[in-house]
Amino acid sequence: MTVDAHERRKDYLSDEEMKLLLAGAKKSRWGLRNYLLLLMMYRHGLRVTEAISIQLNDLNLNTGRLWVWRLKNSLSVEHPIAGDELRAIKRYLKIRNTDLPWLFVNERGQPLTRQAVNYIIKMAAEEAGLPHVHPHMLRHSCGFYLANKGYDLRLIQDYLGHRDPKHTAYYTRTVGMRFEGLWS
Q1: N or C end of the chain: smaller count of CB under 10 Å?
Q2: Is 0.90 surpassed by the pTM of this model?
Q3: Among 47, 145, 159, 170, the one annotated catalytic
């Protein structure tokens, strides 16, 4: 049976669900790293490979900026880093014990793999009591968050690196907040 794109199941997390997921990530053995990983994937709408590919020289901690190298023919762009995120990065860097160029490393000092990120998200979701959470949901959650805040399609498109606005329209078309007040 074919399902139209607008009829598919909810594939993003609400603000409250994201808070639960991030709290679940903190409770793991590598809580600082896992929390930061999920926070950055959410805040910057990162795909798994984009997240594990972040290198230290992509971060400018003095100006609070992150260069996001987008994949899948998307547009790379510079994002601001919020204060709480910047503090989390600095805390993580203090305990990180390797000279590798990648931001996110495993306990053996090697770069994280896609499989490791899948596992981290699965464990954080279980800890938070959230069913069926997958990594790309964090990217969708970013898009829906921005749409719910009332940001225009073009800004969301640029932020997520979409070349074609039809990919971004999904976030603005299905967001229920835009229907509020129609009958007041």
Answers
A1: N
A2: no
A3: 47
